[in-house]
Write a structure and sequence with these properties.
six-stranded antiparallel β-sheet, seven-stranded mixed β-sheet, 42% strand, Jelly Rolls, mainly beta
């Protein structure tokens, strides 16, 4: 279950045209990443799964989870928490990112058990006494059950194919999805965007990459320039 959220980084500069602005972006341009492990895992444990990498054309976050050996580390929820300046959901035009699968975990009859590339978007945080609200977007190795939930988060398979080694670009309308599955998005806010690559359920290996995150909002810059 997702734990307490920590302090977020400063927002990115606004887009230049179209009446929209980038409220947040992450391009993994540096070696240091000030995301957080929401369950409070140590830097050493985080580094055993997640590493910022660069090649001739890309900077990205690689996630490699090997759960075959005894004492292997459990999967880690790792991402960006919007604690100080949660972004109003009804202002968000799009959440964008790129990802690719390098190795799918072993696949059982339920491809949701382990996932090479998944993205958690939290609108209302899960707790011990209630489920949360938000989405778990996934790239499954094969088609899986639809309309299922994890700790209150709707599981959405954006892709369900065994392709490996190829980047794919995603764009989702969070407010429209929220309205469809939970109700009005006015008054709600984006509180967390994070990734999880896991192979513990099948005691196998999963490997995925994530790049170029953006949250695009309508109207004035968010938060205000005076923040």
């Amino acid at each position: 279950m997702l734990g307490l959220f920590l302090t977020a980084t400063a927002p990115a500069a606004p887009e230049a045209s179209g009446g929209t602005h980038i409220a947040w972006q992450e391009r993994f341009a540096g070696d240091k990443l000030d995301w957080v492990a929401v369950a409070g895992e140590s830097a050493e444990k985080i580094a055993s799964i997640y590493k910022v990498k660069h090649d001739a054309t890309d900077s990205y976050l690689n996630a490699h989870h090997d759960y075959r050996a005894k004492g292997a580390i459990k999967p880690i929820h790792y991402g960006r928490a919007f604690k100080d300046d949660p972004i109003p959901l009804d202002r968000i035009r799009a959440l964008r990112w790129r990802w690719r699968v390098n190795q799918h975990p072993a696949v059982t009859s339920d491809p949701w058990v382990d996932i090479a590339a998944s993205l958690y978007v939290v609108i209302q945080q899960p707790s011990w006494y209630r489920g949360g609200k938000g989405f778990k977007f996934a790239w499954l190795a094969k088609p899986g059950a639809r309309g299922t939930f994890q700790s209150g988060l709707l599981q959405v398979a954006l892709r369900s194919d065994p392709v490996v080694g190829e980047w794919r670009t995603e764009e989702v309308d969070l407010c429209a999805l929220y309205r469809k599955h939970y109700g009005t998005c006015e008054g709600e806010s984006l509180r967390y965007v994070g990734v999880t690559t896991d192979a513990d359920g099948t005691a196998s290996v999963a490997d995925g990459d994530y790049a170029d995150f953006q949250v695009v909002v309508d109207g004035p810059q968010w938060p205000a320039a005076s923040h």
